[in-house]
Amino acid sequence: MEKVYALVRILNAAAGFDREYAYFVLPSQRAKIERGSICAVPYGNSNKLRTAVVTDFSDGCDYPQIKPITEVLSYPVTLDDELLGLCTFMTERYFCTYGAAARTILPAGQAMEAGSFYEALPYDRSALNEKGSFICEYLIAHGRTGENTLTGEFGEDVKVLLGSLVKLGAVKQISEAREKVNEKRKVLYRLSSAEEAALTAENPETLRSEKQKKVVGFLKDGGVISVAEAQEIFGAGQSVFTSLVKNKIIEKFELREQRNYIPEKNDIEYYETPLSPSQKAAFSAINGLMDSGEAKAALLYGITGSGKTRVIIEACRKAVNNGKSAIVLVPEIGLTAQAVSVFKSSFGEKLAVIHSMLSVGEKLDTVRRISEGDATVVIGTRSAIFVPAKNLGLVVIDEEQEHTYKSENTPKYHARDIARYRCAYNKCLMLLASATPSVESFHKAETGIYSLIRLDDRYGRA
Prior knowledge:
The protein is α/β, with parallel strands linked by helices.
């Protein structure tokens, strides 16, 4: 199907206007836009830019006049087919808007900045009053000017005047959008590709400053350096780099930095001990369910100290060895440094941690790692159930009876319902674990809806 028209859902639409809207996809946008892409669209009579998610495409449209998509935003994390379906599921089950569901799934730190700009058009200014004529002359002198600049110069009342001038055709209003992503970036410098750079690198004596010579000599063999590093090594400050950039000898670029909040060194060392007979039996049952190739659910019912965590780690390891990913949910109170250390010892750099104490930027970096496949095991609290894990092979909900798995904010979802949907979509195992399971889960396990897996013996001397 050719991407001529896109069906989108507005992310901040009110409940009464929460439906699909059709927009024309410009030829220049068709290679970039996909289902799940985030875009900026003109909405309503005012054509105010809104953020929307693309849900589908169409070859034709019944409406005679269709507005074009303003811009396809380059967000690092978007919605795939599974998460788009999850948005629909949440809308129908929790009576929320599609946008509320999408905003719950998408990580914070991705936002759209929309701005209005004005420029003067050919018009008989003698027909305008003094204020209107003055604004037109200002725009002719300064060219295209942002609304914020105009309100700062003439006050908030200028918005009404600009609206009148737009209706008369004396001024043109232009809306622009750009993505705003909470990323940490490091500014670095490298040798420029310009001819001046090659000549200077071969003949550094042409530079006046000794510090410039040292910086260029360092960069000559393809190296990169920051101002802070150059200051420490050569004593070269910002002025040295500014001069070299101005002369096209070096160029500035930015490199995204990955924020790492998991301690490199664990205070708690974890040693994997052999599985006990009851643990082997439990893992064997889980192994069979994971190999079935069907959506399954099981309750790991084990007394305190029976070693449920060890069995869960083995199940996660099996998923990873099969080329799949795993999500382990724990209550907020259970996500301790000890729990993270245990999983970090087992999975190393393949582990990602999601919890409420992460900053917006740290959470965005973590979700991006998961989306790119750099992290295949995710341990976290309730919101970790929404991470864009690829090829999901296992979802574990530890201490599944805890009330913290139910959201108090709209949409009022339960993590177990979301896990059930994702496991059904990926045809994988949902494993609930508890020493004191909820009445609902235990009833389903006893009646055969869930598989009941018992751990009745304490491990070792526990």
